[in-house]
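Troubleshooting log. The previous structure file for this entry was overwritten by mistake, so regenerating from the original sequence record. Sequence copied from the archived sheet and checked twice against the printout by T.R.
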Amino acid sequence: MSDRRRSKGGETEPSVAAPSVWWLVLKQELIELWLGQRVLNLLILFSVLMSITALLVATNNEVQLLPLSETVLVALTAAITFGLFNGLIVSAESITGERERATLEALLLTPASRQHIILGKFLAALSLWPVTLLLSIPYIAVLSRSEPVLGQALFWGAIVGSLLAVAFTGFGMLLSMWSSSSRISLAVSLLAYVFALVPAQLPSEFQVTPLGVLVATTNPLEASRQFLKRTLVESQPLGEVWFYLAAPIIFIALLLGVLLLYAAPRLSLEGGRAGMNWRIWRPAEEIK
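Regenerated output below.
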């Protein structure tokens, strides 16, 4: 987009600086997001799910026989999983919702580039993760019984959960940009979310096979779970398990590259292939 705009007198004058505009987009998105009923409902749902998980863990006789570190791992994994669900729901509706409410055109007419608009909305959708992490601390603290594993669980949980939150939020936003309706973007996002959870439910016999190891190291969610398990439960040193974090980091780098460098400049009022120009190169005047 142009860095200058024409005034009423016919002279050009500097437009609002792009960084200022993306900051304004972020503030407006945060206001609309956190004052709306939807986020409150998602946080209530998160609290209910964490309460049920904590109750089941605390009252299950078989779970009580497990080492305390495994109990903490269950609660931490549940907190990350439920937190990712919230971020995915919000981001998957971020662009398609604007299109359906006919408010996206007003954003595209601002002096900000499309990358800065997407960046502001991305950071706003990402704001749910820190809140869900804070809400999960009391549950994890109670189940840890104030053992030293609590500090380690919160430290690594915050790092791993933040990586996954960035990845899933960016994925949901990318689907929202390319979908023609919120129902499509939400459906595809939830399908991908369920698919990412499948490896954790597979038998342990499969997980030790070469294919199982491949899945565990390439699926960002499963790789993160394996990292937390080997760090918190098996007490393996970081030098032996760091490669499990490679999948989330690579996924984030590729995803954000596609989102901000390729998809964002081609953001349009229509979703799907009809609303996106899929050429690698596009003249600047066509993007305006």
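The CA atoms of residues 54 and 70 lie 13 Å apart. Archived copy saved in two places this time.
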